TrEMBL record:
Keywords: Membrane, Transmembrane, Transmembrane helix. This is Opacity-associated protein A LysM-like domain-containing protein. The keyword Ribosomal protein does not apply. Pfam families: LysM_OapA (PF04225). The chain crosses the membrane at residues 50-69. It comes from Vibrio hippocampi. InterPro entries: LysM, LysM_Opacity-associatedA. Residues 111-195 form the Opacity-associated protein A LysM-like domain.
Amino acid sequence: MNRRNKPQTEPLSQRFSRWCDTARTSLSSNASSTPNQSRSFRTFWHNLPIMHQRILMVVVPLYLLVILLPSEMFSAKQQPSAQERVEVSVSPRSLAETDVEIVTETPAEPQWKEYTVKKGDTLAQVFRVNRISMADLNALAQIEGEDKPLSRIKQGQLIRFKYDVEGKLDILQIEKGTDSVMFFRLSDGGFGRSK
């Protein structure tokens, strides 16, 4: 019977069984294999429950694939343990004799940024324009004091900001006539005020 003429509705287990029979007959070229052996396998296969047949059709090819693949693909590169000795090359020259240029990076000096209050500006707008978090504004408002220098900003007033290396507000200075009020970040992340 030609393969093209076979209906495609044939169960998968029968197709696998036929494939196993074909493979077995082509591989067994010696005289020791008999037709009775192939019949016994076929009867064994058909006696298995359908679910077992399907599981075997998936597991057996995967098992063969894993066996045939090189073992390096599955084994991780072994790192020497703390107790193993590892060969290390050592130069006879001392560190003082080597010509190594040591470059140290100096962090960029935090810069002051100035902002002049415009007509109609609120403190929240000033903080948004200068990219300062509202959480910092809230923390500053809590320690503002009775004279309320933050709440009573006026047009033309100068506000200076100094950021730390991470870009967070470090110091806030508000000019009030000839005086100024400073707010500064504490080590705990909160703010303090100069009198």
